[in-house]
Amino acid sequence: MSARSAKQTVLVTGAAGFVGARVVEMFHMTGAAEVRAGIRQWSSPGVARLARFPVDIVFCDVMNRGQVEKAMDGVTTIVHSVLGDGKVNVEGTHNLLEAAKKHGVQRFVHLSTAEVYGEPSGKIVETTPYGYTGWEYSDSKIEAEKLCFEYYAQGVPITVLRPSIIYGPFSKMWIIRFAKRLQSGRLGIFKGYGEGYCNLIYIDDLVQGIWLAANHDAAIGEAFNMNGPEIITWNEYFRRLNAALHLPDLPEISPLRARFKAISVDLTRSILVFIQNHMSKRMKKRLIGGTRRTAMGQLADSARSSVRAAVLLRELDHLYSRNAIYVATKAQRMLSYRPKYDVDTSLQLSVAWLAHHGFFS
Amino acid sequence: MNENNRAQRRSVSYAPRIAIIGCGAITELFYLPALAKRRDILQKLILVDNNAERLQKVAAKCPGVTLRTDYRDILDKVEGAIVAVPHQSHYPISMDFLRKGVHVLCEKPLAEDPDEAGEMVAQAEKSGVTLSVNHTQRLFPANIKIKELLVQGKFGKPLYMRYAWGDEFAWPTASGFYFNPKIRKGGVLLDRGPHALDLICWWLGYKPELVLSENDSFGGIEAVAHVRFKSCDCIIEVKLSWLSVLSNSYALRCELAEIENNFLSWWQLPIRHKSGKVEIIPLHSSERHYNDFGAKIVSNFIDVIRKGNAPLIPASEVIPSIELIQECYAKAQRFNLPWYENLEIPNVSPVR
């Protein structure tokens, strides 16, 4: 087993996203590599985050082969962390793999997801078969992985990483959304629902895993689960985040109440989406108003924010109850992966970040 | 400007020839919709951008306008120029027009440097033309009302001010110049600071003293900035962000009353008097969208040229805010950001 020594030039796709931006930040700040941050457009929210560092920011829309070709010039390593719809996940990955093959890159780290296993239970290892669920995101990630292994057979040195629930500063999905829910009193301890495992991995531990995958020869052609050092239940996660936010103790929510509320929210959400999709732009403007909202606009804003903050039926049935642990022992054994951020430390950093960004004001 | 032009200018029906320099998002979203309502002006409009592709794209929305890729070709062919280019070019381009005796309406920030701003104002005076700047928030009825009430002394002495403006950067910038440290001297403070700091200087009537300046630059362009000023007994806090939603409001606490308002709620002013009574002053405004204020700015600029009216926001008035921004950058220190401390990437060593 050998390690790579010369300084790499790493192209990070999806660099304006949650994972991509942290890869750029950590590789740059530690001096580990020369980083090229690939973005789709200047107005992506994460570009302002990247521009705080003197790193090379380039256009790299993975659906645009010309841009991909240009961005890849002189690159030794690719970290592919684009989060897109099904088409982008599959076609975009294909475009990138094709260009990587042509340019003869030394490493291609593909960020996949633990969702490729579907909704299993028990201890999940890398040999657990794919599980199609009909959900566009996870199904397209399976297809993207299959493409990676096809290109591996053609000589592209790929590594696939399957992280679980990635959280930490800048996480909209698992920090901001849940902090807002807790703050608004919409979250509690779900009796009968929230005892499934919450496989949390702090973002910096994942970046450590990405670095190891990009550098260990043993990583080539392999898939690795990526998980944190501590496995807790979802109810425990809500409890600890709530405590880190210094909020009053959480109430218990009965299964019947949780289900009834989630069904009402799903229904309201469907109605709002229907109205939005069937109303002309002009009519919408007239009814809702502009910066200066009409009364109906204010009502629509309030309904939208309530629905966004509410727990969906899908979450209750498919996430909080899932009894699966994504075991990362293969990465520990083959790559010396050692996650170091426990839940409390991770939440402490995340809450400090929330405070910095005016969450409590 | 010859005698004929001057005579024409006196005619109310006369439509001056105006050029817009720069076809970025601000031209597309703010100036062109406003000018589209002025058919007479639009017929004589010249659009300029050094990116021909971008120029054609924007011009497609107003067929028939004259197009140029170099503003120097039209320096003596227009009476007014709207300068809406990346910030670092405001100074040189405005100066070229001012030297030729052309009225200029410049986007904010007027300049990146107070000395340059001072030169621009001096050149306008020397050439006998006007130099104005688009600080849209100065036109908000609520902000004008605050100024009036403070000048009249209705609130007593100001004791505390806070201004917070933050959301994820989503401006559809065409060139991405905001994020190019090679050509830009700053980030969110240079972008949103001109509005915030100008309002504060304008409300107070003078420039406060800088106490603290923090931002999150790591050698690039800052995305979050916090500055604190003081002025007599008044503490002033400003927080600006391109990364997250802030309260997007301002607050003023004075001896006799308090105001807290969403900074985009220009049509009303809520006041809490010392007695505890809450009063909401409704203010007349036909504008429903932020960009509707473009019509007001453009209309004024046309009347400045045509009738010799005074500009709504003379450039000379915003220089204190540009001085403050420069001071903020000079004294800036990095925030304490624990999630950027002790970062480690493991050494990769052979594994058995």
3D structure, described in words:
The complex is a heterodimer of chains A (about 350) and B (about 350). The mean pLDDT of chain A is about 90. In chain A, helix 4 runs parallel beside helix 5. With about 350 residues, chain A is of the alpha/beta class. Chain A has a 7-stranded parallel beta sheet with strand order 3-2-1-4-5-7-12, with helices on both faces. Chain A has a two-stranded parallel sheet with strand order 6-15. Chain A has a two-stranded parallel sheet with strand order 8-11. Chain A contains 14 helices and 15 strands. Among the domains of chain A are: about 160 residues, NAD(P)-binding Rossmann-like Domain (Rossmann fold, 3-Layer(aba) Sandwich), CATH 3.40.50; about 60 residues. Chain B has 10 helices and 15 strands. The model of chain B has no long low-confidence stretch (mean pLDDT about 90). At the A-B interface, helix 1, helix 2, helix 7 and helix 14 of A face loops of B.
Summarize the structure.
The complex is a heterodimer of chains A (361) and B (352). By secondary structure, chain A is of the alpha/beta class.
Main attributes?
heterodimer; A: 361 residues; alpha/beta; Rossmann fold; seven-stranded parallel sheet; two-stranded parallel ribbon; 14 helices; globular; B: 352 residues; Dihydrodipicolinate Reductase, domain 2; nine-stranded mixed sheet; six-stranded parallel sheet; 10 helices
- Helical stretch tally of chain A: 14
Determine the structural class of chain A based on helices, strands and strand pairing. Answer: alpha/beta
Order of helices and strands of chain B: HEHHEHEEHEHEHEHEEEEEEEHHE
* Oligomer description: heterodimer
Q: In what order do the strands lie side by side in the largest sheet of chain B?
A: 14-13-12-11-7-10-9-8-15
Low-confidence segments of chain B, given as residue ranges, are none
Classified in CATH, the superfamily of the largest domain in chain B is Dihydrodipicolinate Reductase, domain 2
Distance between the termini of chain A: 52 Å
Shape of chain B: globular
Please estimate the helix content of chain A: 40-55%
**Count, helices of chain B:** 10
- Using only C-alpha atoms, the radius of gyration of chain B works out to 22 Å
The third-level CATH topology of the domain at 8-163 in chain A is: Rossmann fold
**Could you say what the CATH architecture of the domain at 8-163 in chain A is?**
3-Layer(aba) Sandwich
In terms of DSSP E residues, the strand content of chain A is 15-25%
Text of the CATH class of the domain at 8-163 in chain A: Alpha Beta
Distance between the termini of chain B: 84 Å
Number of domains of chain B: 2
SS elements, strand count of chain B: 15
For the record, what is the CATH homologous superfamily label of the domain at 8-163 in chain A? NAD(P)-binding Rossmann-like Domain
Order of helices and strands of chain A: EHEHEHEHEEHEEHEEEHEEHEHHHHEHH
